[in-house]
Design goal:
The structure is a single chain. By secondary structure, the protein is an alpha/beta fold. The chain has two domains: about 150 residues, P-loop containing nucleotide triphosphate hydrolases (Rossmann fold, 3-Layer(aba) Sandwich); about 80 residues. The protein is about 45% helix and about 10% strand. It contains 13 helices and five strands. The chain has a five-stranded parallel beta sheet with strand order 2-3-4-1-5, with helices on both faces. Helix 3 links the parallel strand 2 and strand 3. The longest helix is centred in the last third of the chain and has 14 residues. The protein is elongated and about 70 Å long.
Length: about 300
């Protein structure tokens, strides 16, 4: 019987509704300088915001968009939340953005009345476009409509078609600093203590902290470290923590984080492959994760 997913005690705003941008001031200033001087120097029509997941790229993209588009009808968003199938039905459970979603956006753009205001197309993210959807975007970027700004969010530049990348001004955004992470934690989790281990584990991604707190993964990770460092931990202890991790697939990679925490670089490739094999080979996750934990323990 499937276990009921635990409700999160935390509420984190959608990037569209989040007016709190912490970090990335330089990137924001770079765009606003270009935007405010567009009459003297035409602004590049395609801006690509690139960087690791969870650092605030989407929040920045929406902040920029709100400064540019004239009214609601001048703003077009392509993302998984608005994904549709070829018949126009919602397909938000898919892992990739369909070409139908992109074509529907283009059709709306063509039907919208131009009020003389700027329009914005925000794609979040380019990594999640199917090959057909990427090609449809490419055709649009080859001859961008006048007074239209494209904001392309991407988590991994190597996932973007070179032809799409070549048409964009790429702004590489950096992971957040520990102090910026603390500031965001205080803003969105004011009554919660975030340990130094979790701040370091986040690797500059507040999104990772949010996911860990929402799933209870932060407590599981700290318990994992305690078990690995405790000389008196038993196989039963390791199995119990493996079962906890197995209940939340998004947490499997905290084993890789633990390996990095202890500097066991030689274990990383085999552990990474073992985690990948859980879904690929339909293995029992608790047993597979237990074996990885055991290997880490042997090396300490």
């Amino acid at each position: 019987m499937a276990t009921k997913k635990k409700e999160s005690a935390f509420e984190f705003p959608n990037p569209m509704d989040n007016d709190c941008l912490i970090g990335h001031e330089e990137t924001y200033k770079t765009f606003m300088d270009a935007w405010n001087n567009r009459d003297k120097h035409p602004i590049h029509p395609v801006w690509m915001l690139c960087g690791p997941r969870g650092i605030g790229k989407s929040t920045l993209a929406y902040k920029i968009a709100k400064n540019v588009y004239g009214n609601v009808g001048d703003f077009f968003i392509v993302d998984l939340a608005r994904n549709i199938d070829p018949h126009g039905a919602s397909k938000t459970d898919a892992k990739a953005i369909s070409v139908s979603t992109v074509r529907a956006m283009i059709e709306k753009m063509q039907m919208s009345s131009m009020s003389g205001q700027w329009r914005v197309v925000l794609i979040d993210s380019v990594d999640e476009l199917t090959p057909s959807a990427s090609n449809a975007i490419l055709k649009l970027l080859e001859e961008p409509p006048q007074q239209t700004l494209f904001l392309l969010v991407t988590h991994q530049l190597s996932n973007v078609l070179p032809t799409v990348r070549s048409r964009a001004r790429v702004e590489k955004m950096h992971p957040l600093t520990i102090s910026e992470l603390r500031e965001l934690c205080y803003k969105f989790m004011p009554d919660t203590t975030i340990s130094e281990d979790i701040l370091k584990l986040a690797n500059g991604s507040f999104g990772k902290i949010a996911n860990l707190k929402s799933s209870g993964g932060d407590i599981i990770y700290e318990d994992l470290l305690d078990i690995l460092q405790n000389k008196h931990s038993t196989a039963s202890d390791m199995m119990k923590i493996a079962e906890k991790i197995a209940g939340e697939p998004s947490l499997y990679n905290i084993l890789l984080d633990a390996i990095a925490h202890f500097g066991l670089v030689d274990l990383y490739p085999d552990a990474s492959n073992a985690i990948y094999d859980i879904s690929r080979l339909n293995l029992k996750p608790d047993i597979s994760l237990f074996k990885i934990i055991t290997e880490i323990k042997k090396c300490l």
